């Protein structure tokens, strides 16, 4: 393959995969030990299940080891970088450009970055679980460093000097005598279609000039000037607009509908009906909406099975049949327990609540389907769509285009299924489908309702001697494992069945994520009751079970600290050995002025709270202190200020990381203070922002400070979900400090502290 | 026929007079800044300025606009030459996914047009109708504070 072939067809991508596989076969033949090791390297994380063909390589190079899968340089020196991850609004596009620019030795402006596209990019599964910089960023860093090394070797040969005497700057290679060769010239002698090598060095972080420096995000200027930034903004020639008509609730089936009057409406091209699946296609978006309303009014439905009573939902869930998972267990001699505490914590179903309802475009041309989508996983979506359409996967192309922030598994995949089903009915015409607000609020897979139950004992000196945790959770991973996981397929004349739910294994976990405390405790038992049956459709929402587990653990640590007559921060430090954990705690406490705040008299309703966690016990460290004001008369809790310290390893873009942490704090404060998906026996009742209130400007704090602790040269640690759990617990601890009332059932607002 | 003056340009459109302004802007005029968020006037992603008021363009039929001028985020500046408020949003990196941002900018612009030096409290109260789900509130507030004095969408 030529290094300058940038926009290849799916056949070429398939060929590249074949060649990649072929090279592995060769490796197997030559290196039987490596082969047997490789076969054992199947791992499951939130990003998906992968078998590493090159387990000795770092990051996603393990599964996509060829250098030209990541970096290509044309003869004009233009650099294209590929990632299988998608920009979800977190700024990874900019971070990846920084990483590639640094390790290659070119200016960031000289790089074109192509993101998740089944025809052109590596398969990196889902963009989820704060994996992007760790997986893809690490792959890009290493691929870029190795490409730089190859270019240096070629340049050295051409200039007839020692490669060690050459310097790379701004996309050119300079010799000590003043001669230079551009990347475009150097690349002509290099075939980048080769496997990356393990153990090759990266740049010395002390020489970094781009990684670690704040860089303005490349996407923001377009977004603040009305540029076409989102899939919602895409306009293709001859494009049609479609809207789906959803049943009134889960399991409802279409009894009757008269489609003829709708088909006669102005601009209507077609009414699509397949069993209980209904959609309209029109020549104009507003006309499609009017037709959708008319079709919806004409449809009569048979009710589905009733939903459980919301008032007793946690009891209902805890009684469901469970798969038992022992998450952690250890026993060691310890001092006698002097006192034992027990507490049970719950969180309600939560709505992702993207501001832009989900949207997709699809075009059926001959035997091929192309879908433009804001999915988190173009490859798994392609597999699901191909199954749904009974098409070979290589006839379906999924191209990621940015959408509204998703915060996990929202309606993105489902609306892509809508677009594909509708586009198949109007071949040759691109179709744009966007969900309506109530469709997004009622049909997205929600963040699961959960219970976390904790028991722990202290010895006479106030040290923890045992800790027991029980968790009840539905799946947090209802991703597109098969076509039946795409909600629109449930309504088809031949309905498809979702693949049975499976828990994400530790160390990342799903419902049990962050359920093992990082604190030193000699006796520990953590048990998850994984509940496969889900009365309400649920899936991944930002930080998964870590949100409630950290809320529970860190609330409970304050209860234990009080029982031990210890300051909450001191009590945490007393049980922590990891110096990086201790550093973020010290930093957040100092920035907040913890000692002074705890030591001085609070005004009525004023309280301060602290919390800490290391996301998944293997990603970013985060400590946070908050101050709240509680109005008992109204039950209102307001976060007044927050001070947070984060260690996410080597920082790529400090301002980008800070933006993520600030956003995480505010989003979590919204979940924690206000949010609860509501339902009655007939269906979801929180169908818009009036019935599902979230944080508005009047509830935004006065001040949020975020300190980042940089660790140059250490691995990238995902940061996008680090602050959600700690923020929830810090707020609950501050409420307890303010009014002496321990709230263990979320949300904290909504009248829970009224009285 | 409906006549709309958008960002100083007059357009005559052959559309149903009940069409909400949002759809005319996005589809007939190909102005993508204003976004569909809820269609209910609850989130503000569709906010544009009509006359001197910030309005939910998802709710306002084109027939109700009359002679009033419509301003959208495209009228404040361009990617090459952003307006002062747009520049402040870039300086503060006041976006994550950014879907709400065009609506935020337009609501803020309406305030700055009327009150060039609003207080922090006035800004928060004025911005209350607009939702951001990524939690970018602190940066949005900082951007509006930075842009104080920028009236009439004037370029910096």
What report would you give on this structure?
The complex is a heterodimer of chains A (755) and B (156). With 755 residues, chain A is α+β, with helices and mostly antiparallel strands. Chain A is globular and about 75 Å long. In chain A, a hairpin with a 4-residue loop joins strand 24 (621-631) and strand 25. Chain A is built from 18 helices and 28 strands. In chain A, helix 3 (92-104) packs parallel to helix 4. Chain A has a 7-stranded mixed beta sheet with strand order 11-12-9-19-16-17-18, with helices on both faces. A 5-stranded mixed beta sheet of chain A has the order 14-22-21-20-15. Chain A folds into 3 domains: 10-222, Aldehyde oxidase/xanthine dehydrogenase, molybdopterin binding domain (Aldehyde Oxidoreductase, domain 4, 2-Layer Sandwich); 231-303 and 352-443, Aldehyde Oxidoreductase, domain 4, CATH 3.30.365.10; 450-476 and 511-739, Aldehyde oxidase/xanthine dehydrogenase, molybdopterin binding domain (Aldehyde Oxidoreductase, domain 4), CATH 3.30.365.10. In chain B, 58% of the residues are buried. Chain B has 2 domains: 2-75, Beta-grasp domain (Ubiquitin-like (UB roll)); 84-146, [2Fe-2S]-binding domain (DNA polymerase, domain 1, Orthogonal Bundle). In chain B, helix 2 packs across helix 5 (137-146). Chain B has a 5-stranded mixed beta sheet with strand order 2-1-5-3-4, with helices on both faces. The mean pLDDT of chain B is 95. Chains A and B meet through helix 6, helix 8 and helix 17 of A and helix 1, helix 2, helix 3, helix 4 and helix 5 of B.
Quick gist of this model?
Chain A has about 750 residues and is of the alpha+beta class. Chain B is built from five helices and five strands; from the N terminus they run E-E-H-E-E-E-H-H-H-H. Chains A and B meet through helix 6, helix 8 and helix 17 of A and helix 1, helix 2, helix 3, helix 4 and helix 5 of B.
């Amino acid at each position: 393959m030529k290094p300058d072939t940038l926009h290849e067809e799916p056949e070429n991508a398939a060929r590249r995969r074949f060649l990649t596989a072929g090279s592995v076969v060769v490796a197997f033949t030559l290196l039987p030990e490596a082969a047997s090791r490789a076969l054992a390297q199947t791992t499951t994380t939130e990003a998906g299940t992968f078998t590493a063909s090159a387990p000795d390589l770092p990051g996603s190079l393990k599964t996509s080891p060829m250098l030209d899968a990541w970096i290509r340089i044309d003869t004009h020196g233009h650099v294209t970088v590929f990632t299988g991850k998608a920009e979800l609004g977190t700024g990874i596009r900019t971070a990846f450009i920084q990483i590639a620019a640094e390790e290659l030795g070119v200016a960031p402006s000289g790089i074109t970055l192509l993101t998740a596209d089944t025809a052109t990019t590596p398969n990196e599964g889902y963009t989820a679980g704060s994996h992007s910089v760790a997986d893809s960023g690490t792959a890009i860093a290493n691929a870029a460093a190795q490409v730089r090394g190859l270019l240096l070797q070629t340049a050295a040969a051409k200039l007839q000097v020692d490669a060690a005497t050459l310097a790379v700057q701004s996309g050119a290679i300079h010799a000590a005598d003043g001669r230079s060769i551009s990347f475009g010239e150097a690349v002509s002698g290099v075939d980048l279609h080769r496997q990356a090598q393990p153990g090759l060095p990266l740049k010395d972080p002390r020489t970094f000039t781009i990684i670690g420096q704040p860089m303005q995000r490349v996407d923001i200027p377009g977004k603040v000037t009305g540029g076409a930034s989102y899939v919602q903004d895409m306009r293709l020639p001859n494009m049609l607009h479609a809207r789906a008509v959803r049943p009134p609730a889960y399991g409802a089936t279409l009894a009757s509908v008269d489609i003829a009057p709708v088909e006669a409406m102005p601009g209507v091209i077609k009414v699509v009906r397949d069993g209980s699946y209904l959609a309209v296609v029109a020549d104009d978006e507003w006309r499609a909406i009017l037709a959708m309303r008319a079709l919806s009014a004409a449809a009569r439905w048979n009710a589905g099975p009733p939903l459980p009573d919301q008032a007793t939902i946690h009891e209902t869930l805890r009684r469901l049949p469970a798969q038992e998972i022992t998450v952690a267990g250890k026993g060691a001699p310890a001092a006698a327990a002097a006192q034992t505490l027990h507490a049970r914590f719950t969180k309600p179903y939560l709505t992702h609540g993207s501001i832009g309802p989900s949207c997709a475009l699809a075009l059926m041309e001959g035997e091929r389907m192309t879908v433009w989508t804001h999915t988190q996983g173009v490859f798994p979506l392609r597999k699901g769509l191909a199954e749904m359409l009974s098409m070979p996967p290589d006839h379906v192309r999924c191209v990621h285009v940015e959408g509204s922030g998703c915060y996990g598994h929202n309606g993105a995949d489902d609306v892509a299924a809508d677009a594909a089903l509708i586009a198949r009915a109007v071949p040759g015409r691109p179709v744009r489908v966007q969900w309506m607000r109530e469709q997004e609020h009622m049909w997205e897979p929600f963040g699961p309702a959960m219970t976390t139950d904790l028991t722990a004992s202290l010895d006479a000196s106030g040290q923890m001697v045992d800790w027991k945790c029980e968790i009840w959770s539905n799946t947090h991973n209802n991703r597109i494992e098969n076509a039946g996981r795409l909600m629109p397929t449930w309504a088809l004349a031949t309905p498809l069945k979702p693949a049975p739910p499976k828990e994400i294994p530790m160390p990342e976990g799903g419902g049990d994520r962050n359920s093992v405390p990082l604190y030193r405790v000699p006796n520990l038992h953590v048990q998850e009751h994984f509940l496969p049956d889900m009365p309400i459709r649920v899936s991944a929402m930002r930080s998964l079970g870590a949100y409630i587990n950290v809320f529970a653990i860190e609330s409970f640590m304050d209860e234990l600290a009080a029982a031990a007559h210890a300051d909450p921060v001191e009590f945490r430090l007393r049980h922590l050995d990891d110096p990086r954990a201790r550093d973020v705690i010290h930093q957040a406490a100092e920035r907040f002025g913890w000692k002074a705040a705890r030591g001085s008299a609070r005004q009525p309703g004023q309280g301060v709270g602290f919390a800490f966690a290391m996301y998944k016990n293997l990603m970013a460290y985060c400590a946070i202190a908050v101050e709240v004001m509680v109005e008992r008369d109204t039950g209102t809790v307001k976060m007044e200020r927050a001070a947070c310290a984060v260690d996410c390893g080597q920082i790529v873009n400090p301002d980008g990381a800070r933006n993520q942490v600030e956003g995480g704090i505010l989003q979590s404060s919204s979940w924690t203070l206000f949010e609860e998906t509501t339902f009655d026996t007939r269906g979801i009742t929180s169908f818009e922002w009036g019935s599902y209130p979230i944080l508005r400007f009047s509830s935004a704090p006065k001040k949020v400070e975020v300190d980042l602790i940089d660790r140059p040269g250490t691995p990238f640690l995902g940061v996008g979900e680090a602050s959600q759990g700690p923020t929830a617990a810090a707020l609950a601890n501050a409420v307890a400090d303010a009014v002496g009332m321990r709230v263990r059932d979320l949300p904290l607002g909504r009248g829970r502290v009224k009285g | 026929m409906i006549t709309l003056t958008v960002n100083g340009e007059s357009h005559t459109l052959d559309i149903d007079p009940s069409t909400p302004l949002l759809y005319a802007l996005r589809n007939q005029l190909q102005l993508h800044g204003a976004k569909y968020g809820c269609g209910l006037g609850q989130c503000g992603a569709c906010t544009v300025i009509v006359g001197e008021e910030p309005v939910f363009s998802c709710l306002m039929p084109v027939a109700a606009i009359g002679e009033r001028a419509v301003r959208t985020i495209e009228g404040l500046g361009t990617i090459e030459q952003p307006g002062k408020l747009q520049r402040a949003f870039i300086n503060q990196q006041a976006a994550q996914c950014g879907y709400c941002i065009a609506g935020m900018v337009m609501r803020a612009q309406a305030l700055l047009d009327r009150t060039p030096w609003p207080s922090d409290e006035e800004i928060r109260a004025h911005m209350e109708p607009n939702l951001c789900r990524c939690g970018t509130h602190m940066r949005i507030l900082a951007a509006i504070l930075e842009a104080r004095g920028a009236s009439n969408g004037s370029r910096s």
